[in-house]
Write a structure and sequence with these properties.
The complex is a heterodimer of chains A (about 550) and B (about 350). Chain A is of the alpha/beta class. In chain A, about 40% of the residues lie in helices and about 15% in strands. Among the domains of chain A are: about 230 residues, NADH-ubiquinone oxidoreductase 51kDa subunit (Rossmann fold), CATH 3.40.50; about 110 residues, Orthogonal Bundle (Fumarate Reductase Iron-sulfur Protein, Chain B, domain 2), CATH 1.10.1060; about 35 residues. Chain A is built from 16 helices and 17 strands. In chain A, helix 4 packs across helix 7. The C terminus of chain A is likely disordered. In chain B, helix 6 runs antiparallel to helix 16. Chain B is globular. Classes of the chains: A alpha/beta (about 550), B mainly alpha (about 350). Chains A and B meet through strand 16, helix 9, helix 12, helix 13 and helix 16 of A and helix 1 of B. The complex binds iron/sulfur cluster (2 copies). The site of one iron/sulfur cluster has 16 residues of chain A, from helix 9 and helix 10. One iron/sulfur cluster binds next to helix 9 and helix 10 of chain A.
């Protein structure tokens, strides 16, 4: 049966460049002399370090514990000794450092005792906790904690679980190779997730430039004999592997920005994440290694299975970095980010390490003014008007940019890819978004300062009143009321204070509501939709929302 | 250090502009073949003036001159001006029009990409308002030999009847003003060879050549179908309706489509991205508006062809049109409970 496929607007067709790194099978990279395991490798709270300097750790041992539920654990990729717990360079464009556990492998690779966990018998909540503590996060690039997404949502069930094997970014082939080698584990992981989501069916989406992977998965699905599993080949068009675009192509459903896809009856996971779920629950193996494509300006492009924490330079050395390399990129050429240096480690988000040269990715030609040709709008998969966003971002008119749905932009880069004026459009959107977040942060800080101030006033006033009441009580010589009145929380005093307190509270609530209305105006031309978007920005900044919205492409 | 995307399509403003210039060649060739080489000289003058003004303005505005000159946008403006104007105008009018377009129409508004009005149409309107008589002197079919044409362009003595012939639109207007009816004017020998089979001898071929160039632009994805289709469709519909109601006083759709600047306007002028509407629905409204206004001016106004004024008038409406026709954003199309849809 051929399922009906849908389409999304826009998109581009860059040269896939996937041949070079798929010629050889996945190779297991040796362990480096030192592993730098960052504590914070996912969306959400930074894990607390669980080990100290000098301590011996075993492979799979938890070295960072999840901080609250919106977080995930990190583990030692091998056995060895902790030689430092300190800030190290992170694979991030800004060149920032963050706390990491530095491990010197002892070469024995001894495994920690596996926890016996029977997920069939466990409650869904327990399974989610287990996955959180196994450090399973989205491996497609967004690194959103997977356990948060394995919740059916309001309805109590889901229609479709979408497995994302589209891998639409040029050069990246890690999912392709994983699907070829581990089809059964991927599908078994999918069936576990399907059960957790109470889903009706599983659709695996694969772009049609990966016939081997599709064939392997189809054979594995047939062997498993589960008719709810379906492997669907979709047309190759970037960004078909964006979670929203793939959901749209496979089911016709468009999940708007900022809402949970489970509310629309779908949920989407990367194929590598599915395998990680399987390995955690069935084999007791936490997420300590991942497949990384090494491609671009290297002698031997290939996929490697790399221990998390391996320095990027070590990985490139094995692929033979060519001397004319001018830049290192983590991710693909469309959405990847420039790396600050070779010392930064491979993290859970590292799907691809790309070496760039001037010949491979020529530096952009000088920027010209926008001629409003509309090419960008025709290429935008989110149906935005990129040149309007550019215009308003550039003139720092962020309210207008939000009216033009700035936060619906998935930063896929299609617009900049086609722009004849060579405008780095996505840079402008990143800038505008971060400015809006910063302003919101400032506003929050100011608000809470004001609230503190008002609370102090209120307390001072209350104390004054209580004092007056006490004096009155004393002068009325009613000793029975006196001890009670000294303590505002005591039941008898409550009777006296409560009406007043209620009034004050009501006044504070009104003031707060007004303030919120005013604050919203500060961010230019407010309306309900914008406020919603601002709230979304808040949620995302706080990294507290369980919306899997940040699932990146491929 | 630059950020993603690191991969870019081979596209440039220069490529866009050069494609437009190439697409103009068929019509230029036909026009030269039918009406003489005057146009070539005008193209040369306009190009030189446009480049000089562009360079001067860029230097004044302290912008990198060489890079911006290379984008080809000034040449496109220059050529559009040259093909819109009667080809035997004295040289100083071309200079004036082109300089006005580049200096005032383009750079005083902030240069490439910033001008709210189509610079070529601005130049055309300024000239026709200032010099209405000269602006209606078009050469007749094979009007005059090269030497005579060059003599005129150089500013020499003009002997009107020698070379000029009324354009079809002009001839029709004069004929109708004289109390004639469409059919009789078109057949009348009095207006000479202005009318060919449909819309004037020779002019149909020029129109078809513009259409051919326009199809090239469509094929190269420089323009989308919206503006030409909406413009020509609206023009044909109105003309068809009017001539059905009062065939004696209103020309039919075929005449309107092939006469004057209809094809040039549909494919090359209304499609100017900078000053035109950008959203798909906005383009339809924008082009339909131009067609309506142009037909009104042709039918009731004082000027023979109204496309230039129509374009400028619709240029004013572009911000409003664009704002009101924003296409729905991904996920906000079905009005689901998403909180952010408009
Ligand atoms: S593609 Fe570039 S030049 Fe064209 S409208 Fe978009 S931003 Fe402007
Ligand atoms: S980066 Fe944003 S604006 Fe540009 S094409 Fe992608 S979604 Fe659209």
């Amino acid at each position: 049966m051929l399922p009906r496929l849908f389409s999304f607007n826009g998109g581009v067709k860059p040269d896939p460049n996937k041949g070079d790194s798929t010629r050889e099978p996945i190779a297991r990279l040796p362990l480096p002399p030192q592993l730098v395991v960052p504590l914070h490798q996912h969306i959400g709270g930074t894990p607390r370090p669980l080990v100290g300097v000098g301590e011996r750790v075993l492979r799979g041992q938890r070295v960072g514990g999840a901080d609250g539920n919106v977080s995930s654990a990190v583990h030692a990729p091998t056995s060895g000794r902790v030689i430092a717990v300190e800030s190290r360079l992170m694979p991030h464009a800004s060149g920032l450092s963050a706390p990491a556990i530095v491990i010197e492998p002892d070469g024995e690779d001894r495994h920690v005792e596996r926890e016996a966990f029977d997920w069939h018998a466990a409650s869904p909540g327990e399974v989610r906790d287990f996955l959180r503590d196994a450090g399973v996060v989205g491996l497609g690039g967004a690194v959103f904690p997977s356990h948060l997404k394995l919740n059916p949502g309001k309805a109590g069930h889901t229609d479709t679980l979408v497995l994302n094997g589209a891998e639409c970014e040029p050069f990246i082939t890690c999912d392709d190779m994983l699907m070829r080698t581990e089809p059964e584990g991927i599908l078994r992981g999918a069936l576990i997730m399907k059960k957790m989501l109470a889903a009706r069916q599983v659709l695996v989406g694969i772009e049609d430039n990966k016939p081997e992977a599709a064939a392997a998965l189809k054979a594995a699905a047939a062997a498993l004999g589960d008719t709810s599993l379906e492997v669907v080949v979709v047309p190759t068009r970037y960004p078909a592997g964006g979670a929203k675009q793939l959901i749209r192509v496979l089911t016709g459903i468009e999940v708007p920005h900022g809402s949970r896809s489970t509310d629309y009856g779908v949920q989407c996971f990367n194929v590598a994440t599915s395998l990680a779920v399987f390995q955690a629950l069935e084999q007791g193996e936490p997420l300590i290694r991942r497949i990384v494509t090494v491609a671009g300006n290297v002698e031997r492009p290939r996929n490697f299975e790399v221990a998390i924490g391996t320095p990027i330079g070590f990985v490139f050395a094995h692929a033979g970095l060519k001397p004319d390399t001018d830049k290192l990129i983590m991710g693909g050429p469309m959405m990847g980010m420039p790396l600050p240096g070779v010392d930064a480690p491979v993290v859970k988000a590292t799907n691809c390490l790309l070496a760039s040269s001037a010949a491979l990715f020529p530096p952009p030609e000088p920027e010209l003014p926008c001629i409003r040709c509309g090419e960008c709008a025709r290429a935008c998969p989110a149906d935005l008007q990129p040149f309007e966003l550019y215009w308003h971002s550039r003139s720092r008119n962020f309210g207008r940019a939000q009216e033009y749905h700035l936060f619906d932009c998935i930063e896929c880069g299609c617009c900049a890819y086609v722009c004849p004026s060579h405008i780095p459009l996505v840079d402008y959107y990143r800038y505008a978004k971060s400015e809006i977040w910063a302003r919101e942060r400032d506003k929050d800080a100011a608000d809470s300062a004001r609230e503190r101030f008002e609370f102090r006033n209120w307390r001072a006033e209350r104390e004054k009143e209580e004092k007056a009441a006490r004096l009155a009580a004393r002068s009325a010589a009613k000793p029975a009321a006196a001890p009670a009145a000294t303590d505002g929380a005591a039941p008898t005093a409550d009777a006296a204070v409560d009406p007043k307190k209620a009034l004050i509270e009501a006044a504070m609530a009104r003031a707060k509501a007004q303030k919120e209305a005013v604050a919203a105006k500060n961010t230019a031309e407010p309306d309900a939709a914008q406020q919603a978007q601002i709230d979304e920005a808040d949620a995302r900044r706080a990294r507290a929302a369980a919306t899997p919205d940040s699932e990146r492409t491929e | 250090m630059y950020n993603s995307p690191f991969l870019r399509q081979k596209a440039s403003v220069r490529r866009v502009m050069v494609t437009v210039l190439v697409a103009m060649l068929p019509a230029i060739a036909v026009q030269v073949w039918l009406f003489g080489i005057g146009l070539l000289l005008q193209l040369a003058i306009a190009s030189a003036v446009a480049l000089a003004c562009e360079a001067g303005m860029l230097a004044l505005r302290r912008r990198p001159v060489a890079r911006a000159l290379g984008d080809g946008s000034a040449l496109v403006t220059a050529w559009l001006i040259a093909v819109c104007l009667p080809p035997l105008l004295p040289w100083w009018m071309i200079v004036l029009g082109t300089a006005f377009a580049i200096v005032i129409g383009k750079h005083l508004y902030g240069g490439l990409g910033q001008n709210p009005f189509n610079p070529a149409m601005l130049a055309y309107c300024v000239l026709i308002v200032s010099f209405p008589a000269l602006m209606s002197q078009w050469p007749g079919l094979h009007g005059g030999d090269a030497a005579a044409q060059l003599h005129w362009i150089a500013g020499g003595e003009r002997t009107l009847d020698a070379m000029t012939g009324a354009t079809p639109l002009d001839a029709l207007r004069t004929g109708l003003h004289g109390g004639g009816e469409v059919a009789s004017v078109m057949q009348s020998a009095a207006v000479g060879p202005a009318f060919g089979h449909v819309a004037g001898a020779g002019w149909e071929w020029v129109a078809l050549a513009w259409a051919a160039g326009g199809l090239l632009l469509l094929a190269m994805r420089i323009i989308t179908w919206h503006i030409p289709v909406a413009f020509l469709g609206t023009l044909a519909a109105i003309a068809g309706l009017a001539s059905a109601i009062d065939g004696a006083h209103f020309a039919g759709p075929a005449f309107h489509l092939l006469a004057g600047g209809s094809m040039l306007g549909a494919f090359f002028i209304a499609t100017d991205p900078v000053s035109g509407a950008t959203t798909p629905r906005g383009k339809l409204i924008f082009a339909a508006g131009i067609a309506l206004i142009a037909w009104l001016i042709r039918s009731f106004g004082a000027y023979p062809d109204g496309i230039a004024f129509a374009v400028l008038l619709m240029n004013i409406c572009v911000p409003l049109i664009d704002q009101k026709t924003q296409p729905p954003v991904f996920g906000h199309k079905l009005g689901k409970p998403d909180g952010g849809a408009k």
